[in-house]
Amino acid sequence: MDHTLQRQGRAEPDASGQDVSAVLIAGPTASGKSALALEIAGELGGEIVNADSMQVYGVLDRLTARPSQKEMARVPHHLYGHVSPRTAYSTGLWVEEAARAIAGIRGRGAVPVVVGGTGLYFRALTGGLSDMPAIPADIRESLRARLEQEGIEPLHEELSRLDPEMAGRLRPADRQRIVRALEVVMATGQSIARFQGRPGPQIIDPSKARCLVLDPDRAVLHARINARFARMVAEGAVKEVENLMALGVPAQHPAMKAIGVGPISEYIRGDLILDEAIERSRAATRQYAKRQLTWFRNQLGAEWQRLQS
Questions:
Q1: Could you give the CA distance from residue 250 to residue 18 in angstroms, rounded to a whole number?
Q2: CB-based contact 279:1 (threshold 8 Å)
Q3: pTM to 2 decimals?
């Protein structure tokens, strides 16, 4: 990583002369977020909190580019690899766990350094998401299983009966939002529209935090992505996918959608050669990075400092 970027990224007093209460580091995959977080946390005596929706899962250490054990031994890390791939983890669950982790860090007199590439996690952390109700696991699991078995049309028809207003707003092919609306109305008896617009709790005030978003040169980022995926395979990514497949995790669960799982699964089953699985995974990673960059560009506010790398 460029040393200029490292110097710019250090947490320091804000314009009022007061120390920041937290450091938030967002950016696309392979942009150097984890290395910057390690440097800043080391300088501040801080502790790192994961804000990447795939790095929460166990089993997929290398495939999700989780920090190594050696890196995590340098400063305390939280919310990495602690969730079973069998669990349908959600933004709501992450916010609850992140709030507890951050409270603990502050209670120890340390600075939380939150780092990751999942934009919704940062929005939720700073109070920018609606305050949605908790969904019982049996409802969530049942709907995900039905989506896999029946497809989206029967679920949209059911939403039309239970919540016709939301069904009318959503495209019949909008799988994610239809399932989410069904979860809420089945769990609460109320339309998701009643909850939308209610601000969620603000765990970190972005005006009092140092907010950094990495915006690397595209050619450099693509080269890093290509090199990193080859490294992942060399370091055991195929074995990780074998272990994941052995768990019998339902295909609709989030962990099964981690980049690389699909192509490597096809390689393991003999449907692809390894080189093709690697190239497909690289291409998917580049596409994902592009979506992340677009989201950060359009959704993060003026308090976020953009850093080139």
A1: 49
A2: no
A3: 0.80
Q: How far apart are CA 141 and CA 277, in angstroms?
A: 30
Task: Give the Cβ contact number of residue 175 at 10 Å.
Answer: 16
Same domain, yes or no: 157 and 299: no
Range of the domain at 118: 3-131+199-216+292-307
Q: Burial, 176: exposed, middle or buried (Cβ in 10 Å; 0-12, 13-18, 19+)?
A: exposed
Q: Residue 106's closest CA among 10, 223, 212, 208? A: 208
Q: What single letter denotes the amino acid at residue 9?
A: G
60-105: per-residue pLDDT in tens?
999 999 999 999 999 999 999 999 999 888 888 999 999 999 999 9
d(CA 77, CA 252): 29
Q: Provide the number of structural domains found in the chain.
A: 3
Tracing tokens 């560009």 back to the chain, one arrives at 297
Residue spans of alpha helices (H) in 45-89: 69-74
Do 182 and 227 have their domain in common? no
Tokens of 252: 């609709």
207 and 177 belong to one structural domain: no
Using CA atoms, how far apart are residues 162 and 156, in angstroms rounded to an integer?
Answer: 10
Q: How confident is the model at residue 301 (pLDDT cuts 50, 70, 90)?
A: confident
The answer to whether 270 and 11 are in contact (CB under 8 A) is: no
The widest CA-to-CA distance across the chain, in whole angstroms, is 61
